[in-house]
Amino acid sequence: MVRSDARENRARILAAARQAFAEDGDTSMNQIAQRAGVGPGTLYRNYPSREALILEIYQEEVDRLAGSVSELLATLPPLEALRRWTTELVDGMRTKHALGAALSPDAHRSITEQTYGPVIAAITRLLDAGKHDGSIRADADPGDFLQFTGALWRASPDRTGPMLGLILDGLNTASK
Asked: Residue 69's CB: how many other CB atoms inside 10 A?
């Protein structure tokens, strides 16, 4: 069992790293340790490399994003839930891309393989909810949707909303 102080240190490290990497993708491990208020030994005990820390942040973000589907569907119509979820996904893709240079090709491949299933499962749930209520086309495919949204992170942030709107209009049964 992990001690509570060790869990707290790990959470502080992740929070500090997430914020630091959002500000500057080249942030050093020592800078992260300082921001988290832990010594370098504590940081490296939890994350033996910068790559391990980045991979943990990615995984945590995908878990949070996948876990948000139920709440979105409970409070929003499926098409709007899909819009909000996808906007967060695209923001996460931008972050992942910005930090991607810090990952080896093997780590990049590993995190992509590790996160693909949960992302496709989340998209499937969102699309299925819309198919069930008749707001999303029956032929909407989760893999195709992910491919389309994969292009959105490359667009300037001010274009993401309008471009996503075009994709969602193509899924919307009311726009046929």
From this structure: 19
pLDDT in tens, 33-77: 999 999 999 999 999 998 889 888 888 888 999 999 999 999 999
First to last CA, the chain: 55
Give 49-175's CATH code, choosing from 1.20.1600.10, 3.40.50.10860, 1.10.8.60, 1.10.357.10. Answer: 1.10.357.10
Q: Are 36 and 43 in contact (CB under 8 A)?
A: yes
Predicted TM-score (pTM) of the model is: 0.83
Q: How far apart are CA 106 and CA 115, in angstroms?
A: 14
Tell me the backbone φ, ψ of residue 29, rounded to 5 degrees.
-65, -40
With CA atoms as reference, report the closest residue to 47 among 3, 5, 17. 17
